[in-house]
Amino acid sequence: MISNEGVRLGAEAAHRLAQTGLYEFGAGLTEAEFTRIEREYGFEFADDHRAFLAAGLPTNVPPEDGQTWSRPWPEWRGGDLDGLRRQLDWPVEGVLLGVEHNAFWYEGWGERPADGTAALDTARRHLAEAPVMVPVYAHRYLPAGRGSFGHPVLSMWQTDVIYYGLDLADYMHQEFDEARDEVDDSWNPRATALFWRDLL
User: Fold this and answer.
1) pTM of the entire structure?
2) PANTHER family, per this entry (predicted)?
3) Which residues neighbour 114 within 8 Å (Cβ) at sequence distance 6 or greater?
4) What pLDDT, on a 0 to 100 scale, did the predictor assign at position 79?
5) Which class for 109: exposed (0-12), middle (13-18), buried (19 or more C-beta within 10 A)?
6) H-state helical runs in 102-176
7) CB 170 within 8 A of CB 160
8) pLDDT one-digit tens code per residue, 84-115
9) What span, in angstroms and rounded, lies between the C-alpha atoms of 27 and 43?
10) Torsion angle, alpha carbons of 83, 88, 92, 97, to 10
11) How far apart are CA 97 and CA 115, in angstroms?
12) In angstroms, rounded to a whole number, what is the distance separating the alpha carbons of residues 112 and 120?
């Protein structure tokens, strides 16, 4: 059952993005498409993320020189499957890079094994239990989870995780209305996703 508040929040996020005029939108995802995507990739969209994608799929524009992501909007319909898988794997792979190359270790995993391969295996096993993070745009993510909504949007670059929005609607304002420097003391996100919130 999808929550009314989640639907409202997702629709508001879509409206805010549309108001910027930066992107065109394709038809929103259908129930059959959501079912196929969720089965194929092994997660369920949060209610607000689902409502956002049901309202319309933002269309990627040709990348600018030096842009990290050539196709920042996940192409859930008919996109490059390998590219989509890479985008879904990005948060976990980023942490594994940190473990392998930057001596990162999460204290909740216990003592770090001295052997590098064993450390990676241990980290991979623990990360398999962390909440699945689903790409919204480039390396901005929301936790997966039907029946949930209102999570802060996180920017995830290896173990550098920061807030990019109080929720999906606020994120659209922060990212695309160039409002990032306009936050006041009331802008106080609270991360909800276990493990990932500890990297903030």
Assistant:
1) 0.92
2) OS08G0472400 PROTEIN (PTHR32011)
3) none
4) 78
5) middle
6) 116-127, 168-176
7) no
8) 999 999 999 999 999 999 999 999 999 999 99
9) 22
10) 20
11) 15
12) 10
CA distances from 30 to 35, 45, 58, 70, 165 (A): 9, 13, 15, 25, 26
Please report, as a single letter, which amino acid is at residue 9: L
d(CA 152, CA 188): 10
Please provide the size of the chain in residues: 200
Instruction: Tell me the CA end-to-end span of the chain in Å, nearest whole number.
Output: 31
Return the structure tokens found at 112: 């770090």
User: How far apart, in Å, are the Cα atoms of 77 and each of 30, 113, 125?
Assistant: 10, 42, 30
What is the distance of C-alpha 12 from the center of its chain? 18
Q: Report the b/e string of 115-126 with b at 16+ CB within 10 A.
A: eeeebeebbeee
Buried/exposed code over 146-177 (b: 16+ C-beta within 10 A; e: otherwise): bebbbbbbbbbebeebebbbbbbbbbbbbbbe
Could you tell me the two tokens for 178?
């160039």
